[in-house]
Amino acid sequence: MTTYYEQRETAGVAEREDNLFSRLPEALLQARQRASAIAQQLQGVEPGDVQDRESLGRIPVIRKSELLQAQLAKRQAADASEMPVQDRLFGGFSTIGWGEAARVFASPGPIYEPESRRADYWGFARALY
């Protein structure tokens, strides 16, 4: 067993921050294109302009209570049966489709949270190593 899960763990603060913010614009772009609620959340925000903590702060925070309300509203909408299933169940906050999820977690509310089949989806492996 090695001391570190991966070499990135030994990076300095500035290098780690540069790495994270260099990957963030593409992640935001993908989320905006594939999740309707994220697209709405990112209105007025250009993903390529999010390059540091200050610009990240311009993205509105969505509270868990707002997430619950959005999911409930989509599930109860009159045209719910015509919506893509991930919009109806996940409120438009997921880029993972119903059939693509390895699991779907239900939190109180209920709030539904899909888990991808991708390895280390939640990003906990490094912390648990």
| Average pLDDT taken over every residue | 88
Largest sheet, strands/sense/barrel: 2 strands, antiparallel
Radius of gyration over all CA atoms, rounded: 17 Å
Tell me the number of structural domains. Answer: 1
Give the distance, in angstroms, between the N- and C-terminal Cα atoms. 10 Å
User: Low-confidence spans: pLDDT under 50, at least 5 residues?
Assistant: none
State the share of residues found in helices, binned by percent: 40-55%
Secondary structure tally: strands: 2
Order of helical and strand elements: HHHHHEEH
The tally of helices reads: 6
Structural class: mainly alpha
- Overall geometry comes to globular
Detail the topology: elements first, then pairings.
Elements (H helix, E strand, L loop, with lengths): L12 H22 L1 H6 L11 H4 L7 H13 L8 H6 L12 E5 L3 E5 L9 H4 L1
Antiparallel strand pairs: 1-2
